[in-house]
From TrEMBL:
Pfam families: PI3Ka. It comes from Diaphorina citri (Asian citrus psyllid). GO terms for cellular component: cytoplasm; phosphatidylinositol 3-kinase complex; plasma membrane. This is Phosphatidylinositol 4-phosphate 3-kinase C2 domain-containing subunit gamma-like. Residues 1-89 form the PIK helical domain. It comes from the Eukaryota.
């Protein structure tokens, strides 16, 4: 574990997906890997951002930090619980500004998903009109509360430029 403590945050981000997967195999909730990831997330907003979205992606449900798990094995339930605790710890310790940014990003993703579902279910002849109308609402939201993209914390979305 000592070799990984010396790598830069940029390099750590490259390995985060594998490290989150490795957390699934850990035996205890408070393990060295989880503590290391949380510590590095507190030192680097970029690491925190990527760790947050990797945990959201791995955990099931619309609210992964609070979701219940049905129809899975005991081992899977334990690994989900471990990841859920890490996600909750990250949210609780990351600070108000980053927490608000995460919530704005989640709202953006939720709205985009909802728009996509609505467009899929409407008649093909109405799709463009419905898409335009739905995206206008999203545009207004982004103008009021710009946020960075979940894929890249360095890209901020402010709505369309006129």
């Amino acid at each position: 574990m000592s070799w990984i403590e010396n790598i830069s945050s940029d390099e750590l981000v490259d390995y985060l997906a594998q490290l989150v997967q490795a957390l699934k195999s850990e035996t205890y909730e408070t393990n060295a890997l989880a503590q290391f990831l949380l510590k590095r997330a507190l030192l680097s907003p970029r690491v925190a951002h990527h760790l947050y979205w990797l945990l959201i992606q791995v955990l099931p449900g619309h609210s992964p930090q609070n979701s219940d798990i049905d129809d899975i094995t005991i081992g899977e339930a334990r690994s989900h619980r471990r990841l859920q605790l890490l996600l909750r710890a990250l949210i609780a310790t990351c600070g108000e500004a980053l927490r608000k940014r995460f919530m704005c990003q989640q709202l953006l993703v939720k709205n985009l998903h909802s728009i996509a579902e609505n467009i899929k279910t409407c008649k093909e002849s109405h799709r463009m009109r419905n898409l335009t109308s739905e995206l206008e609402g999203l545009h207004a939201m982004l103008q009021d509360t710009p946020t960075c993209l979940p894929l890249s914390p360095s890209l901020e979305v402010k709505g369309k430029i006129r």
